[in-house]
# Entry
Amino acid sequence: MRPVIKMSLKFSAFLSLCVLIVALSCEDTEPEIDNIDPFLNIVFINGDSLDQLNALIEEIDLTVKDIDDTIAILALDSVIDRTETIDSLNEEKAALNTTKSAFNLTVTDIESGSVRVFGISSPAGINPIIPSPDSAEIFRIPLNPAEDISEFEISLEGQQYDLKATYERNTVVEQRTVIVEAFLTDVISESLEITYICQDSSTTCTSNETTVTARF
Amino acid sequence: MKPLLPLVFSLLFTLIFLKGNAQEDSTKLVIDTGLEVYLDYGKLITQFSEFESKLEAGIAIQLSNKLAPNFQAGYATLEPATAFENGTYKSTGYYGRIGVNYLIPFDNTNTFFVGIKYALAFYEDEGMYEISSDIFDTYSVSFSEKDLEANWFELVMGSEKKLKNEKWAVGGQFTLRVMNQRDKFSPVDTYAIPGYGRTLDQTVPAVNVYLKYKF
# Structure
């Protein structure tokens, strides 16, 4: 075989190799996007129970303080031996503190949003969501990707509550996936006490990154 | 696509090296001048694909000074499944390329060439995407754009071999396409352009294979 033919064959092989390298370098390794529709993160707090528990804890604190004062006075008595009475008061104080600890744990649970949500639906929706009672304390509620407003009816521990979110939508393409983002303009309710703080600037309150606290 | 630049330089270097070796050969090289027509048979295979349908043919005039002005025209329907994870896309249109190749003959059967081209496409695209929801109806949006235009430049290098009947030849070429101007849209931009390919990068590589007849 003439050298030039050999050379041309080598060149053809080289060209093929280059094309293969280019093809492999173009291969996509992008991860998939989980959420293409906007959503709202929401924590439900039983405000009535919380108020009642805090009042009971306050009452226990006052009683314990009274017991401490009584024990201090009795301890100063040098005429009569008050040891039995003081021991009895200390036992009562220990019992009250145990009760207070249990109440504090319940308060922590309520404040973290551990409540039973039986269902979330929307007048404009087609399917109600039934979150699991053991699901995460932060509930993820889908917003309507076709409208700038989403209204919900929420069943919480046997009662019905309303919730309305208004937002501005933005469609973007990320990693070959078309997604709809929502920037919250307001979250309101007639039956729930709503608070939320935007994680980013107030002009772009991205719904997916905002957690709403709803007290009922 | 930065890795392409070293590739282009490597190919150019190889061509220059090979040309230097070829000139040492004592065989008298004959340039077959005249009109040539060719068909991209690689694109014919796409007629059996459900994702794309392409057709491309061209003419060239081989001059004695090793230059070969050429022109190609083509039609393509592109429906890349990779366009959107949650949607579909289709781009349809005509395109043309005009340019010149410079021949680097090694012998009277095998020829290498390099060239540059300017390309123009007239096309339209359409598609749809869906945003599904756990509570609400699926949000479906359709889009379409008409009377679109794009133009780009191409750097070409390839090889060609005459068949037993010397009026016929087969060849292949590696092309680096560099986008110059195209219509852009937001939020869903043009994904593929007939004759150019995917618009993800400002430059895209391509490979063509063709069958040529010399008059």
In short: The mean pLDDT of chain A is 80. The CA atoms of residues 43 and 108 of chain A lie 13 Å apart. Residues 39-45+115-215 of chain A form one domain. Chain A touches chain B through 46 residues (CB under 8 Å).
